[in-house]
User: What shape does this take?
Amino acid sequence: MSSHNSSGPLALGPPGQLLLQPLWDQVRARAALAQSPPFAVLFSITAYLGCCLPFVLLDLLCPRVRALRRYKVHPDCWPSARQLLGCLGRTVCQHVALLLPASLLHCARGPAPWPREAPELLQLARHVLGCLLLFDAEVFAWHVLHHRVPWLYRTFHKLHHQHAASFALATQYMGAWELLSLGFFHVLNVVLLQCHPLSVLAFHLLNIWLSVEDHSGYDFPWSTHRLVPFGWYGGVAHHDLHHSQFNCNFAPYFTHWDRILGTLRSAPAK
Assistant: This one.
């Protein structure tokens, strides 16, 4: 992470840095709030629910608007109110029970000073992509292990497969061990790559969105896997196949690890 923390006037930087500097100045002006434990919990829940909300609204409309069903992986299947509320309740409880204590422990060490300079745009893009690739590899290994060892699957991962037809609010429907593991990988990667706080924020938001999109059950013409060329990115139908068949498509986002280990399975074309 950048250590520039001087109190003198900010020198003009490269164009990519100047582009992000106004945004970073706004974030840095609220550093005390942003580094507080309650804010970490509130921000994480708000970001997650904000990503889920469009798909939840679609789930509520789908039984009444038949035109929406053409975009669903399972056109005649949508979550009940009980399922939605159950997933929401578990998410909120786990954020309070797990994330808040972790944030308190982190803040007990004292908040790290934030750099005055924003990252360059290309640096931010490299760090976010690097974090995504590392996270993808780590979760792939964790995921394969927890499927191949029956005790691990029954004890820690089976809960996430409770909903055969996935939906957005089921993205974080998982046990404490799984949620803590994903959180550990997230933190480990930004530390390994020494990411700027703004890059950490961008990675956090993108990671949540991609995860929610993969569990949403909706395959739109603008979905991420249709924007990434050469089949490098799996997408919602790719991940839905994992939830229905269990023994394929273990990587959360990209396809190269499944291709290398022979666990890649293509979703049937609609």
